[in-house]
Amino acid sequence: GLKKRYVVRLLRTRLEQRIQDILDRLGQVAQDLGLDVFAVGGFVRDLLLNKQNLDVDIVVEGDGIAFAAEFARRFDCRIRTHRKFGTAVLIFPDQFKVDVASARTEYYLEPGALPTVEHAPIKLDLYRRDFTINTLAIALNGSHFGELYDFFGAQRDLQEKAIRVLHNLSFVEDPTRVFRAIRFEQRLGFRIGVHTEQLLRSAMRMGFLDKIGGHRVWNELVLIFKEANPLPAVLRMADLDLLEYLHPDLLLEKRAKKLFANARQAIDWYRLLFTGEPCRHWLVYFLCLLTDLDDQAVASLCQRLVVAPRLQQIFTVEREAAHRATNLIFWRRMHTAPPRPSEIYDWFQPLATEVLLYAMARSNNEQVQRCLSSYFTHLRSVQCELVGSDIKQLGIAPGPIYKEIFQRLLAARLDGELVTRQDELDFVSQHYLPNKHTNE
Ligand code: CTP
Q: What are the boundaries of the signal sequence (predicted)?
């Protein structure tokens, strides 16, 4: 096992100072209340793997809520409690959060059945978890600060780079772990253990995923697609028949790899150019996954997974519109004149950024790509100079006609027909003032 001295050094050298301070204070309060308090789970896993993890999870052997309340009383932070679960969240002034849970002791605290094993509560709490690598705990209180508890072979599995469940019913108890196993495996570059993979496959075969709500499956999928590069996890899902489970037609062909790679390029391009503008990369990738499904299949998948209406709209209506627009650009280029900028604007403006990036990834036509990139870099930010009061001053009474005027002004500007403010004024006079028809 790891020497306490070594763990203390990790805590002292690899964590930001403010997190170190918080751990010290948690330990102080624990010591004063005579409670054993541990940092657990992903935080400890990532500490040993030397990966940054800002989700600090604390487990208290005893009343976690009382512990958190005392901490909040002493130090400058707010507390939010969930009595039903015996959990609390400490919220620091900079919005940094620490989750505090009570070690679940309900299993053995029957009258007369006092624990004989040392630290039975934390051990039982950790036993409920998904994979061995998530079962490490580090003691925080006083003289115990830095003691590492490894009840289930976590250090071995970290060394062997293995994702392993703690017991045979793990996937049956919580089928979302099927997705979590894949997510951790790909993120950490680990491998699901042989026995664990058998358990996973048999849980799949026996249909346990059907027992959890579609929205929970969806949440797990989103988490996978939110990883920096989801393609390996998607390929692994295919390998484990999870794509087929989602939809029978969702078979990844070879070109999926190419598509995901293109998507990544499009996303990187967008982020570099428009730093800070929102771009949900997971949506772009998800659209890539769906690329070979027809509209009806997508709609039924969305329904099964209880996807929010706005996203459903993106996956069906907006996706279709993007396909239509890019086909049109391609066709127009071949047979007639290329589309005018105002047309491109009209096609793309109603669509989510992510749908357009997906279209960019999907298209292998230079003209289509050029249209998309000119929309992003130029067209979408074009505005006309006149405002409502300018139109009013020209003597046009406010009404629905204004909307039409602004649309035409914008279109003419996009197409380069109007350049200055005076051009716009002339345009409006010419088309909307009956007494100035001289030029026509
Ligand atoms: N957990 C579990 N079963 C689940 C979800 C979570 O056993 N279905 C446990 C895991 O052991 C995990 C802990 O609850 O360590 C916290 O969950 P989460 O925050 O999702 O896990 P992290 O390991 O922190 O993962 P991430 O790095 O993605 O946040």
A: none
Pocket test for ligand 1, best of 99, 126, 130 (most atoms within 8 A of CB): 130
What's the CA gap between 186 and 113, in Å, rounded?
42
Residue of 59, 123, 126, 129 to mutate, ligand 1, most atoms within 8 A of C-beta: 129
Whether domain 170-304 has CATH 3.40.50.2300: the reply is: no
CA gyration radius for the chain?
A: 29
Query: What is the pLDDT, as a whole number, of residue 315?
Result: 97
* The model's pTM: 0.88
What is the length of the chain?
A: 440
Structure confidence at residue 117 as a pLDDT band (50, 70, 90): low
Closest ligand 1 atom to Cα of 180 = 8
**CATH 3.40.50.300 given to domain 4-160:** no
Rounded to whole angstroms, how far apart are CA atoms 158 and 161? 5
H or E element, residue 163 = strand 162-163
Q: How high is the mean pLDDT of the chain?
A: 92
ipTM rounded to 2 decimals:
0.93
Structure tokens at 406: 């602004």
Assigned token pair, 245? 């489970």
Burial (CB count within 10 angstroms: exposed 0-12, middle 13-18, buried 19+), residue 249: middle
Query: 409 is written with which tokens?
Result: 């002004």
pLDDT, tens digit (0-9, with 9 covering 90-100), for 273-311: 999 899 999 999 999 999 989 999 999 999 999 999 999
Measured in angstroms, how far is the CA atom of residue 131 from the centroid of ligand 1?
9
For every residue of 289-308, DSSP letters joined together read HTTTS-HHHHHHHHHHTT--
Ligand 1 geometric centre to CA of 236 (Å)? 20
Least confident of 24-33, 74-83, 324-333, 418-427: 324-333
Task: Give 271 Cα–ligand 1 centroid separation in angstroms.
Answer: 29
Give the side-chain half-sphere CA count within 13 A for 196. 23
